[in-house]
Amino acid sequence: MSVFHAFRSAGGQRGGEDAREHGDGPGGGDAPPAGRARRVAGWVTTALACALVLFALDAPDRLGRLSAGQFVRIPVEALVVAALALVLPARARRWVAAPAGAVLGVLVILKVLDMGFDAVLVRPFNPVFDWSFLRPGFEFIDTSVGRPAAIGLTALIVLLVVAVPVLMALAVLRLTRLAARHRAWTGRGVAVLGTAWVASAALGAQAVPGVPLASGGAARLAYDHARQVRTSLKDRGVFARQASVDAFRNTPPSRMLTGLRGKDVVLAFVESYGRSAVEHPEYAPQVDAVLDAGTRRLKEAGFGARSGYLTSSTAGGGSWLAHSTLLSGLWIDNQQRYRTLTSSSRFTLTRAFGEAGWRTLTVQPAITRAWPEASFYGYDKVYDDRNLGYKGPRFSYATMPDQYTLNTLQRDELAASGRRPVMAELALVSSHAPWASIPSPVPWNAVGDGSVFDGMGKGENAAWPSSGRIRGEYRRSIEYTLNTLVSYMLTYGTKNTVLVFLGDHQPAPTIAGQNASRDVPVTIVARDPAVLDRISGWGWQDGLRPARTSPVWPMSTFRDRFLTAFGSTPAASPPPAASHR
């Protein structure tokens, strides 16, 4: 008898047949070999059903809490279902058990999703917003591991999404039949364990340190996600009210960014450059040394720098949420907000530069297809993987090295004569997970079309570093990008160059550490001292490395602070509400 057939027997066989399967019927002790095999299969199936239900009820929703001690608990949900099995007639019992099992299966899927999202994005799964991460997740696996692995994993996930609720429903059906058949034992067990649950809940008893004996995790998870759905459905209205407030929307161009006239402004997001990179003991000694050396080299060349911290709207991934948060001045922490924002007329930092006379552009080497949201930001030019002219190797997820990205900006835009000042937003992705392939710097005049990097990259699907190496590879990637930025300013920076660079978000907890903040360093570099004088009241640290005590602002406040510091005057009349298509 297969395990699946044994599960089916829970819902389809009559009580006498089920009793014989477990040796409870007449002649059970003298059963022939075939009968003994069925009886053993029945007990094994029952044990599997118990284990499956216990895992579903007591497993935590965070991977870091998963331990054997989590299962030394009394789940109140099991006691409730067992009590119902005692008092309900057979037909009603089946109608309660099967849906309860299916719901429990859905909760298991939610727990697994919560574990995955917490491990990567440092937050639980949102059933309303987070389906949009499926495509980026598939693409990341595709480029990091390979198409067959991405397809195989997708197929496995689909299979589990279907199979888990079905198997859980069959398991609960089987166990409730068993409970109803052994009413006396079930009644005593519910009474004893129920009393123990109440006492443990009242006294906070723990069988394992840090793990309460009384468990109601499944019910709490269902409640939390239901509340999350309710809040998420209301978020569109909340966000619309927030977006309708914009002090700079009606500011005339003549009163916009007057303190930066004639300057080229380069705004560079450094992938996964979080506070942990400059404070975590595994990274700080080397990364801080790079920042301090860069500060000295820049100072010798006549440049100054100031650094602080911003709190990102995301962690572990979702870089586009951080980019849109900083540029729009609104807190964008989910895909619904992002889509609402990018289909609105919200006044962005890039539009402010454009209206004030700058040529605005973005360089996005990780974008490999059409990007309709670009029109929202108001760029005059979009550079991406399709038109950057790169002929070199791929570096795992990164389509090209950061040095090539910066060199292309310089060659194609900033080196032109008789041009307008440029405001450029860049995404520097050499420090993107999986940190499997990190380029080496080359002389700037040798970058060319990128073929100079041949032999350095490991291409798509490069093997992830081992668990013992991945942190070191992450650190090396951050060092590479920071050294590249310093070298770029020393090579091409002038009195009219202003560099703003910051992290988009912290890396995943396996890199940043558990309970890490969402803070990212932010730095402004300029040769003209008047530029840094305008932010002297911000309290930022001198140099490229922020101090532990440096101010921490929400990333959404940067737009207004930056505009104000550099001579923009808020509009006198109230701005119109954001329009949504």
UniProtKB/TrEMBL annotation:
Bias-annotated ranges (Basic and acidic residues): 15-24
UniProt keyword annotations, A-Z: Membrane, Transmembrane, Transmembrane helix
The keyword Transcription belongs to this UniProt entry's keyword annotation: no
InterPro entries: Alkaline_phosphatase_core_sf
Chain ranges passing through the membrane: 40-59, 71-88, 95-113, 149-173, 185-205
Region (Disordered): 8-35
UniProt key word Transmembrane helix: yes
Name under which the protein is recorded: Sulfatase
